């Protein structure tokens, strides 16, 4: 019998009230900046993003999200942790930017 991550979390009683899960690729707007990354861990009010990048300039916002291409990208060297209290909004993306631009 196979279990999904969600099934296993339910069986173990692990609760996550956040609208994203480990493994999701996200574009997050915080109160001060934009960031992309793959959710790899959630601890309390913090979410860990691997393959993360600060989006210094998205360009035209709707076009950037449709094409998943951003005008200025600054990849993090290591994983980054974000306090979820600072998240203004987020959306799922399929492709993470990985090159400085």
Q: What does this 3D model show about the protein?
A:
By secondary structure, the chain is mainly beta. It has a single domain, classed as Roll (SH3 type barrels). Helices cover 15% and strands 42% of the residues. Strand 2 and strand 3 (46-57) form a beta hairpin. The mean pLDDT is 90.
What layout of secondary structure does this protein have?
Elements: H1 5-12, E1 25-30, E2 34-43, E3 46-57, H2 61-67, E4 72-75, E5 80-83, E6 87-92
Antiparallel strand pairs: 1-2, 1-6, 2-3, 3-4, 3-5
List keywords for this structure.
101 residues, mainly beta, SH3 type barrels, 6-stranded antiparallel β-sheet, 2 helices, 15% helix
CATH topology call: SH3 type barrels
- Into which percentage range does the β-strand content fall? 35-45%
The unreliable regions are none
Instruction: Compute the average pLDDT.
Output: 90
> Per CATH, which architecture?
Roll
Q: Based on CA inertia axes, which overall geometry fits?
A: elongated
Number of strands: 6
What's the helical proportion of residues?
A: 10-25%
* DSSP helical segment count: 2
List the secondary-structure elements in sequence, H or E.
Answer: HEEEHEEE
CATH class: Mainly Beta
Q: Could you describe the largest sheet, including whether it forms a barrel? A: 6 strands, antiparallel
**Radius of gyration from the CA trace?**
14 Å
């Amino acid at each position: 019998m196979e279990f999904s991550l969600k099934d296993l979390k339910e069986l173990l009683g692990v609760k996550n009230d956040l609208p994203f899960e480990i493994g999701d690729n996200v574009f997050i707007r915080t109160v001060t900046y934009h960031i992309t990354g793959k959710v790899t861990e959630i601890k309390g009010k913090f979410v860990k993003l691997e393959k993360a990048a600060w989006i210094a300039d998205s360009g035209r916002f709707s076009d950037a999200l449709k094409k998943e291409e951003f005008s200025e990208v600054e990849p993090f060297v290591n994983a980054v942790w974000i306090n979820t209290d600072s998240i203004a909004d987020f959306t799922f993306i399929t492709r993470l930017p990985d090159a400085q631009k």
